[in-house]
Structure formats: structure tokens, C-alpha cells
């Protein structure tokens, strides 16, 4: 039986630890036959990623701070050295200051607002620009978002605004990059116990609410998000672009 991503080269940005959705996606991509290029931020994270992905088909682990243009330029150069097209990219990057996730949204600092936008939203544009020269055969660029982009989620605050910008950027990129046969989509995952999610005050109560009210009466599993990312990156998703694919046990359809 052939694998869905056999022969594809995929770049995954955003693995931080074993709870990262990016790690679940890397596992699924490797399972489906893709060769991986991973990025890290700092030497300590590099060591953690090396240990975590030792059993995956990893071609390279490269440094990349998406807030630094010179590192993105270096990433493009490193990808060119493979002498083959890049087929798929996963953008799983987001950050906001902890204090901006705990105090009232109206008290968000200017610096905190801009930082969340830079890392969580603008980075998709910067990454798209960096990878486009090596996606010469077309391909897929997938980012991760959350329902807090369009609905008020308690204590999600500045990150919700950043995710709204991310989704808008995804649509504009899909429109422009379609001429290169590059598809750009987002997966909107339900709440999952990642390290970053734990920074959101009252997160455990959100999980409890999902179990009570979502149509499937349960929370989302990382593997479900990963399999959705496989669909978008594989040839099965060849006609899908500019879309948000919800993988949240159906919570997005519910009102009060």
C-alpha cells in the first residue's frame, strides 16, 4: 500500500517538545513517507528535537528565528542545497507574553500586541516568502489556528487577535501563491494540552466545557490534527486552498 506523502520533502516549523502539535504532524508526515526538514530556536531546543525525532526520517534540523530576516534568508539557502523542490510546509508558530494572556485585553501593551502579531501572524508571510523559491513544483503551506480568532475565548486575548490576522494572511497568501500551484490553508484545532496552552488562565475549564458541549462529546487528539495536516499536504488535498479545516470535535458549530 502506497503512502500518502511518499517521496515528498516537508518542512515543519514549531516543534518545541513532545506535546507540540508540530511534533504530532512530523510523526504523521514521516509515517506517510515524507522526508523532514525541521527548525529550532536555540541550541537547547535543537538537542531536544534531535532526541525527540530520532526515529523519524529527518534530513536536516536547521536554525530559524522567524523574527530575524537573516535567519529566514539562511533557511532559503539551506533548502536550496537539497537540489530538489520542497513539497510541503507546516507553520506551527505562536507566541504572546504570559501577562497579556492573564490581564484584561484592554490592558494589552503596545509591545505585547506587536510581539504576538510578529511571531504568530506575520511569520506566516515571512515563511511563505522564504519557501516560495524552493517550492518550484507547487505544494502545500499549512498553518495552525484556533476558534478564538473569531469568537471571544476567556483569557485568549491578544492571541485571538493574532490568530484572526493569521487567518486573513492565509487567505491573501492563498490568492497570490495559487499562481505558483502552492496551496495555503489552516487547521483550526480544538483545545489540546500543549505547553503553550497551559499559559492560558482557566484552560482546564475550557477542556471540560468541550467534553460537555461539543457534538462528539470529547476533546481533540493531536493525532487527529496531524492526519488533517497530512490530507492538506498530500495529493488528496490538491484542490483545497484558502480554507480553514476545523478539527475540534465539532465545537465550532455550537452556540451557547
Fold and architecture overview:
The protein has 256 residues and is of the alpha/beta class. 39% of the residues lie in helices and 16% in strands. It has 7 helices and 7 strands. The protein has helices at residues 21-31, 43-52, 69-80, 110-131, 157-177, 203-213, 222-233, and strands at residues 9-13, 35-40, 58-63, 88-91, 139-145, 182-189, 244-247. Strands 3-2-1-4-5-6-7 form a 7-stranded parallel β-sheet, with helices on both faces. Helix 1 (21-31) packs across helix 7 (222-233) and helix 4 (110-131) packs parallel to helix 5 (157-177). The protein starts with 8 loop residues before the first strand and ends in a 9-residue tail after the last strand.
Low-confidence stretches: none
Percent helix range: 25-40%
Mean pLDDT metric: 94
Structural class: alpha/beta
- First-last Cα distance: 45 Å
- Secondary-structure element sequence? EHEHEHEHEHEHHE
Strand order within the widest beta sheet: 3-2-1-4-5-6-7
Task: Tell me briefly what this model is.
The protein has helices at residues 21-31, 43-52, 69-80, 110-131, 157-177, 203-213, 222-233; strands spanning 9-13, 35-40, 58-63, 88-91, 139-145, 182-189, 244-247.
Keywords:
256 residues; alpha/beta; seven-stranded parallel sheet; 7 strands; globular
List the helices and strands and how they pair.
Layout (H helix, E strand, L loop, with lengths): L8 E5 L7 H11 L3 E6 L2 H10 L5 E6 L5 H12 L7 E4 L18 H22 L7 E7 L11 H21 L4 E8 L13 H11 L8 H12 L10 E4 L9
Parallel strand pairs: 1-2, 1-4, 2-3, 4-5, 5-6, 6-7
Helix pairs in contact: 1-7, 3-4, 4-5
